[in-house]
């Protein structure tokens, strides 16, 4: 179809169909992405930090995120934030402003995190499926019953489901996934918060502290420090949507400018996110005090009503079945695009095969079948080897927070605005980046230590919860 770019009302300046999104729809996307299973770990993080540090850290992360995501919004177009050429992905923006080397490093971090998220989702799903079985067991056999089950069968079943879903063409374009994810994620977040609030209102809440879990016979000062580091990683993961920020921006209409609309969405989305985080974290800590479980729905701070606990975990499973694919598909595509470039004449890589089953027609690509299946199997095996919810979430948060939310946005902003080295603004931006780097390193070390301790404590592949 012939059209003159910029003059045909059906198309945008890049020749694509007119975008219709606005600040409100972008806000909805942000909230959908950030309200995940990590929210249920915030009560545990609050317990490690206490009221003062816990609230302060959540607010500080929110302020830093709002500032740096606004910098990211200004870099959607290159070189001018209003009239420049669009960057459709985070990697493309980094490459445009910072060059090919940073483009490659960004890709490694971004897709490495996506791969890690699939492992985290496998752990989370199996934990929730076991929690459903345990809720029923405790209800009928009593709260003191020995209701421990292996996570492995559930991880393997989840892996089989994901192998089949991974082979569905264009699965990532099924728009109803986001709707289901939004409904179910809010469902389990409000169930967890509501059950915590009920305990507090009944006067059954446990004692809390301004400084968090008290050092004593069961907790040394060193152990508390490591737990605080891990808690920082949990909070960092919960506040991240860098992996999809340009996907969201690419839905916005051009007038008013996309960066202005996205800044409004950042303000609304991150404010809403922070309020929800404070509610989930604060209410969970108020209900359980020093005994706050790593996940308030699977750690069995709640036993009754057992059907509501089970329903919350069902919501988690439904959410993650689709969310796994939303995170895995970009990784699948980039590997397959790279393979097509490197081995452009290989039938194994490029050729599609068709077959009929009765009246149904199917097609498959050999490389896609083998590569995606192997990936899901490896992710499942890794999850089975170290199925530790909080520590793994903290590690993912630590890996992604500094490079994706702080370092790259700041460096792109410096390049875009041509900020002089050693100037006051340059120095302050680099100081912010350094502080966040130290926080990320502390969170990474704390979570790795926690994973190592758990692996030594439990026999590999024999973990029961």
UniProtKB/TrEMBL annotation:
Major location category of this protein: membrane
Cellular location(s): Cell membrane; Endomembrane system
A Pfam family reported for this protein in Swiss-Prot or TrEMBL: Aa_trans
Membrane topology note: Multi-pass membrane protein
GO BP terms in the entry: amino acid transport; auxin-activated signaling pathway
Membrane-spanning ranges: 21-45, 51-72, 93-112, 154-172, 179-201, 228-246, 267-286, 306-327, 369-386, 392-410, 431-452
Function: Carrier protein involved in proton-driven auxin influx. Mediates the formation of auxin gradient from developing leaves (site of auxin biosynthesis) to tips by contributing to the loading of auxin in vascular tissues and facilitating acropetal (base to tip) auxin transport within inner tissues of the root apex, and basipetal (tip to base) auxin transport within outer tissues of the root apex. May be involved in lateral roots and nodules formation.
Family membership: Belongs to the amino acid/polyamine transporter 2 family. Amino acid/auxin permease (AAAP) (TC 2.A.18.1) subfamily.
Protein name (record): Amino acid transporter transmembrane domain-containing protein
Organism this protein belongs to: Lupinus angustifolius (Narrow-leaved blue lupine)
């Amino acid at each position: 179809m012939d059209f003159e770019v910029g003059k045909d009302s059906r198309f945008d300046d890049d020749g694509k169909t007119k975008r219709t999104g606005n600040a409100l729809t972008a806000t909805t996307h942000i909230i959908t992405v950030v309200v995940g299973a990590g929210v249920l770990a915030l009560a545990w993080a609050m317990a490690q930090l206490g009221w003062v540090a816990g609230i302060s850290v959540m607010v500080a992360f929110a302020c830093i995120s709002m500032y740096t995501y606004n910098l990211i919004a200004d870099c959607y177009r290159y070189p001018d934030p209003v009239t420049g050429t669009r960057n459709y992905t985070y990697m493309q923006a980094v490459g445009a402003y910072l060059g090919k080397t940073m483009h490659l490093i960004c890709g490694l971090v971004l897709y490495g995190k996506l791969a890690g998220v699939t492992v985290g989702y496998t752990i989370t799903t199996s934990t929730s499926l076991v929690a459903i079985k345990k809720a029923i067991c405790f209800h009928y056999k009593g709260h003191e019953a020995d209701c421990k089950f292996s996570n492995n069968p559930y991880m393997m079943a989840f892996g089989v489901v994901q192998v089949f879903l991974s082979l569905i063409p264009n699965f990532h374009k099924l728009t109803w996934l986001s709707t289901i994810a939004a409904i179910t994620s809010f469902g389990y977040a409000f169930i967890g918060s509501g059950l915590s609030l009920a305990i507090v209102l009944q006067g059954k809440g446990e004692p809390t502290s301004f400084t968090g879990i008290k050092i004593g016979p069961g907790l040394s000062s060193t152990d508390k420090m490591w737990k605080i580091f891990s808690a920082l990683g949990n909070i960092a993961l919960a506040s991240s949507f860098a992996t999809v920020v340009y996907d969201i921006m690419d839905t916005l209409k051009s007038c008013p400018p996309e960066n202005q609309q996205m800044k409004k969405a950042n303000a609304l989305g991150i404010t809403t996110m922070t309020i929800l985080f404070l509610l989930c974290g604060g209410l969970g800590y108020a209900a359980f005090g020093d005994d706050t479980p790593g996940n308030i729905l699977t750690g069995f701070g709640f036993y009754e009503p057992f059907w509501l606990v089970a329903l919350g975990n069902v919501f988690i499973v439904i959410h993650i079945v689709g969310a796994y694919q939303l995170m895995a598909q970009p990784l699948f595509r980039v590997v397959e695009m790279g393979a097509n470039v490197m081995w452009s004449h290989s039938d194994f890589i490029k050729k599609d095969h068709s077959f009929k089953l009765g009246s149904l027609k199917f097609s498959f690509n050999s490389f896609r079948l083998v590569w995606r299946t192997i990936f899901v199997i490896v992710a499942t095996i890794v999850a089975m080897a170290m199925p530790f919810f909080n520590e793994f979430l903290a590690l993912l948060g630590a890996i992604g927070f500094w490079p994706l939310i702080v370092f790259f946005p700041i460096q792109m902003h410096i390049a875009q605005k041509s900020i002089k080295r050693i100037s006051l603004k340059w120095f302050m931006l680099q100081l912010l980046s350094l502080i966040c780097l130290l926080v990320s390193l502390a969170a990474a070390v704390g979570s790795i230590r926690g994973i190592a301790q758990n692996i030594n404590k439990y026999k590999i592949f024999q973990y029961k919860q």
